[in-house]
Specification:
Elements lengths: L6 E8 L6 E7 L5 E7 L4 E4 L6 E5 L7 E5 L7 E6 L2 E6 L17 E8 L5 E7 L5 E5 L17 E8 L5 E7 L3 E6 L10 E2 L5 E8 L5 E7 L4 E5 L16 E8 L2 E8 L4 E5 L5 E6 L2 E7 L5 E7 L2 E7 L5
Antiparallel strand pairs: 1-25, 2-3, 3-4, 4-5, 6-7, 7-8, 9-10, 10-11, 12-13, 13-14, 14-15, 16-17, 17-18, 19-20, 20-21, 21-22, 23-24, 24-25
Amino acid sequence: MPQGTRTARVTTFASEPGHILWPKLARARSGHVVLLSSCEGQEIRRWDIATGRMLWRSDDVWFPNALAVASPPGRNPVVAVATEDGVLRLDALTGAELDGYAMAANDTIWDVATGLLPDGRAFIAGAGHCGFSVYRWDAATGEPLGPPLAGHTICVKAITAITLPDGTPLIASEDEAGRILRWNAASGQPYGNPIHGPGQYNMQLVSLALSDGRVMLASLDMHGTLSRWDAVTGEPIGPLLRPGPETFLACATAAGGGVLFIAPYDGPVRVWDAVSGKILGAPLPGTGPAALSCFDGSVWLATQAGEAVAVRRLADPPR
């Protein structure tokens, strides 16, 4: 990494032989960092980010597709798990499955995202396969927030949620053909016109705040085409980037601006300037990056290497 950049490896932990871990980072309403992992096939685990000690393990989750963490007011944080049979909610402190409404139990949910509504409630959004739908639920109860949102004509593969500068809670969903639809998470009404991306078989969509006040949507397809869009206007941000096929994408807002963490299946992780598209600094070991912005401008970064996960604190992310 460039001179002046400080990175500290906080902890490393591993699962049993043959159990490949994929990390996920999130922040609870309390400010605490939640470090999770999913294992190919069946289980979710939570880890202590400082020591690498496993806090709990849920063995009853088959084929988890994605994880997200919601923070309902006055309650424990909730882990939302996208599965082939809808969405499962787990207590983030104990790992126990939460009772409540059946959440798209007859649909495969490929991705989940979470956010806050203007009234303070936390919501979960899901990307549906069978009905090409986008789902919204109250994170505390699992109750639907209105009917599924329709507009996609092919299965929805990726979803993200972010609050815009004017306070609008935005959901952005992307289907396999690269078409992005934006929704007001509170009302369920469409937000702006569809964004027609150039990608093929799009699988990853992230959102991040930029230092100039804009909000970016970044989409990566399975062939390695990276598209960037203004979340408010739908206009492109910069040219297409091509980091390569079968890559993983994460993002964070760091001191100095937004950064993207991109890694091929066998690593390493490279840091990209979200706006200029330039590669910053030297590569970092591992793959499957998960990133989380910190209030002081640093970034938590978790990476996977087979059965092990390494967690680093980037005190001065490269610029």
